[in-house]
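Subject: design request, 347 residues
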């Protein structure tokens, strides 16, 4: 499970190469899904279009949502869009850049499915067999309108007795397949041309804004990751100190109630237990980071989390920490010279 967790965290990183690899993986899964899918048109006039169009666009919608789900930047983009401005102004250009990056990767797998379906032609034949103009084909001259509609509905089912070995069915099916493939190849050519133009024309424009958007979009992603990691680190350290404080206080209470055997003189247990009312740094030898130990109560943690969400810190490392008010200084607390905490802060 640890390996799967590490793999998932690695896939959730902001690296563009990893996200591109995920897009290629989704595209490969799309090709495999379509090749293994068994297409069965209902061959009913009322349901052919619904089934064909549904199969053409419903799986791409699911693949698009999966692409958004596995892309970490989609969540970061929404958080950056919805967060209050606070001490840091919001740049809509960064949100637009992240939105463009997310959409480009999320649309890869749906486009692969749609192009495969159009080039194969089965979905198109099923969806539009009833929409063919019978006057384009000479074989329908001796049929009534109801017979023509029934015959066209049976065109996707080549094994049906009504249309089996019928030249009219082959003509209609060939016509719709050619039209479907023409649309598929046109979309493919259009996408290639757009990608080519975007690739070739990008250096012709000013790259300063592009580099700035790319830098700050990566910064927002990494900042959120580092904040989550620091919160986990503080939660672990906070829980560790709470447990040590609990056992130290229980030791004093057991001795006060006479429920704990008094240690013999000179034994290590005869030493005075640490004062549970003292600073929590002394409970575990003062190990840990001073800037994490400055937050020592639930109220401070809740205030810190709400402050981080409501007013992100300004992007100025020289800014005064007084912006955060009392009790939320991100620097280490002041300590008297010669104390243990002072030595740790100087190390």
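Subject: RE: design request

Done. Sequence follows.
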């Amino acid at each position: 499970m640890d390996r799967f967790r590490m793999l998932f965290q690695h896939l959730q990183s902001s690296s563009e190469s990893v996200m591109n690899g995920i897009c290629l993986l989704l595209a490969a899964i799309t090709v495999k899904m379509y090749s293994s899918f068994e297409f069965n048109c209902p061959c009913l006039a009322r349901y052919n279009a619904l089934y064909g169009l549904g199969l053409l666009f419903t799986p791409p919608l699911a693949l698009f949502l999966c692409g958004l789900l596995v892309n970490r930047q989609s969540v970061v983009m929404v958080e950056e869009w919805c967060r209050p401005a606070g001490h840091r102004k919001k740049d809509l250009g960064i949100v637009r850049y992240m939105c463009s990056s997310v959409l480009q990767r999320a649309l890869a797998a749906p486009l692969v499915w749609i192009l495969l379906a159009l080039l194969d032609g089965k979905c198109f034949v099923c969806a539009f067999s009833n929409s063919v103009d019978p006057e384009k084909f000479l074989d329908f001259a001796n049929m009534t309108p109801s017979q023509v509609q029934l015959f066209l509905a049976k065109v996707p089912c080549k094994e049906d007795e009504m249309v089996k070995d019928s030249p009219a069915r082959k003509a209609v099916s060939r016509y719709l397949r050619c039209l479907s493939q023409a649309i598929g190849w046109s979309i493919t050519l259009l996408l290639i041309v757009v990608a080519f133009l975007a690739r070739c024309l990008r250096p012709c424009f000013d790259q300063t804004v592009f580099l700035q958007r790319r830098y700050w979009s990566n910064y927002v992603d990494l900042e959120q990751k580092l904040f989550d990691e620091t919160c986990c680190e503080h939660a672990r350290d906070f829980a560790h100190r709470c447990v040590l404080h609990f056992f130290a206080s229980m030791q004093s209470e057991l001795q006060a109630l006479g429920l704990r055997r008094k240690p013999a003189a000179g034994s290590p247990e005869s030493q005075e237990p640490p004062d549970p009312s003292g600073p929590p740094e002394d409970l575990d030898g003062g190990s840990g980071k001073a800037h994490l130990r400055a937050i020592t109560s639930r109220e401070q943690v809740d205030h810190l989390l709400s402050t981080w969400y409501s007013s992100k810190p300004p992007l100025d490392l020289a800014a005064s920490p007084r912006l955060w008010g009392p009790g939320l200084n991100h620097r280490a607390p002041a300590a008297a010279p010669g104390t243990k905490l002072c030595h740790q802060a100087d190390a």
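The two ends are 37 Å apart (CA to CA).
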